[in-house]
Amino acid sequence: xxxxxxxxxxxxxxxxxxxxxxxxxxxxxxxxxxxxxxxxxxxxxxxxxxxx
Length: 52
Fold this sequence. Notes:
Blueprint: H1 22-29, H2 31-51
């Protein structure tokens, strides 16, 4: 099998990660939302720990 050459060139759009939407950026930086997610994740962990 022959190795195919990549058609992408450096510094092309494909090399950069997508930028988050405004809603996603808000969820990542809002302390109230982060605290809410923290509580939910901890409750899920407690439920799993009690099963074992």
